[in-house]
Structure formats: C-alpha cells, structure tokens
Write a structure and sequence with these properties.
Keywords: Oxidoreductase. Pfam families: adh_short_C2. Belongs to the short-chain dehydrogenases/reductases (SDR) family. InterPro entries: NAD(P)-bd_dom_sf (IPR036291), Sc_DH/Rdtase_CS (IPR020904), SDR_fam (IPR002347). The chain is of the alpha/beta class. A 7-stranded parallel β-sheet has the order 3-2-1-4-5-6-7, sandwiched between helices. It is built from 7 helices and 7 strands; from the N terminus they run βαβαβαβαβαβααβ. The chain is 42% helix and 16% strand. Strand 4, helix 4 and strand 5 form a beta-alpha-beta unit. It has a single domain, classed as Rossmann fold.
C-alpha cells in the first residue's frame, strides 16, 4: 500500500482518532491536510508531522459551514494540484435526555457529524474526478449506529446516517472511480490508556480496548488503490465488542 505523495485530507485531525489517522498517513509518505476547528491543536499536529519528517498543512475549518469546506478543498487543490483521499472524521457527541435536547443542539450534532460528510465528499469529489485514478473517501461512523445507550439520539441518528450516505455516495461516484466506504469504530481510547481496567478490556474478543492506530490502519486499507474492489461498505472495527454476549454478574 503506497501513499507516497498522495494528498490526504483529514477533518477533525487536531485530536483523538483524527490525529492518529493524520500521523499514520504522514508516516506512509502522504501529504496531509489537517482540517479542524481547533486552531491551536491543529497547528501543533501539523508541526509535529513536519518535525517527524512528513509534509503537512493546516487549514482552519468549521465543517458545519459550507463555505469552510469549499475553502478547504480549494486550498488543498490549489496548493498541491490534486486531492486523492478524504477522511471525514470530524464529529461531536451529545448525551442528553431527548426531553431536554433543544433543536439547536440537535442541528449542531447533525450538521457537524452528518451534513459535513455530504458536503465534504461532494466538494472533494469535484477534484478527485480529475485524477486518472479517481480517489477514495472514508467516513467515520460508529458502532452507535447499530446499538445505543439512553440519551444518545442525535449522535446515533447522525452516525446511522453516515452508514447510509456512504453506500449512496459509492453508487453516485462510481462512474468517477471514487470509492466510498465507512468505518464504525467501537471503544477507541484517546485518553489515558493505562488507566483502563481489566474488565474494560475483557468486553472485547480481542481482549483489549482499541487505540486510534487501529482506525488509522483500517483507513489505509480502505484507501489503498489496490483495494478499490472494497466499495460501499461499513467496516466495524470494535475488537468484536458488538458480537460479544455480555450478561450482568
């Protein structure tokens, strides 16, 4: 899987899973465009990639805003002359009783998590279809698209929507040679991994909680040109947690 000098845009790349994805593509020789609302951390991630010998640029982006997404894609294309890969990773959670969720809060989650996937994919595809080899898009959904805890309606709706729009976009962009897939991460610890308990790890067939690198490697697989026969899927990367029957003791 060769990503040398491919131009990769990662939204929500200033922290967590997005940061891990951006760093791994840079390690593989890709040119990484770091997009995030968080200017301080976005700049730090970009500088860290450069310090490690990679090539990257930071584009401040609020994925809720159509004009920001258009600017992101245009800036990347004007700077590097192509866009090869887009990782729609930006997202936010909301865990609040449905009785108390305001319409503004609902819209904020849907715009951040789902509408941004449509806008980002559409605007990136306008440039990708100019490539001889097309391109690849990966949308980061969640296992919460297929399972829930109480008070997670907006988040679950947005992530379920991502799984649906993924195969729709795969159908629409097929004629342009653009593969579209999504990943549904399970429990991915982005904080203090050492603080996790043994019971946390035992909830998984893999006997461990996930790390950002687990999702980054899945992105590499789905965006490698030789794997373009994989198209329109939802790849669940959760250590088997959604397949494990758990009974209270």
């Amino acid at each position: 899987m060769n990503f040398e000098k491919q131009v990769v845009i990662v939204t929500g790349a200033a922290n967590g899973i997005g940061q891990g994805i951006a760093a791994m593509y840079a390690e593989k020789g890709a040119i990484v465009v770091v997009a995030d609302y968080d200017k301080e951390n976005g700049t730090q991630v970009t500088e860290l990639i450069k310090d490690n010998g990679g090539e990257a640029m930071f584009v401040p982006t609020d994925v809720r805003r159509e004009e920001d997404i258009k600017n992101l894609m245009k800036t990347a294309y004007d700077t590097y002359g192509r866009i090869d890969i887009l990782i729609n990773n930006a997202g936010k959670g909301l865990f609040k009783s449905p009785y108390d969720v305001t319409i503004d809060e609902w819209d904020d989650v849907i715009f951040t998590n789902l509408r941004s996937v449509f806008l980002g994919s559409r605007e990136a595809a306008k440039y990708m279809r100019k490539n001889e080899n097309g391109g690849a898009i990966v949308n980061i959904a969640s296992t919460r698209a297929i399972m829930s805890e109480p008070n997670s309606e907006a988040y679950a709706a947005s992530k379920g929507g991502i799984t649906g729009i993924t195969h729709a976009l795969a159908a629409s962009f097929a004629q342009d040679g653009i593969a579209v897939n999504c990943i549904s991460p399970g429990w991915i610890e982005t904080g203090d991994y050492a603080s996790l308990r043994d019971v946390d790890h035992r909830q998984h067939f893999s006997n461990r909680v996930g790390r950002p690198d687990d999702i980054a490697r899945a992105c590499l697989y789905l965006t490698a040109r030789e794997n373009n026969f994989v198209n329109g899927i939802n790849l669940v990367v959760d250590g088997g947690m959604t397949r494990k029957m758990i009974y209270e003791e």
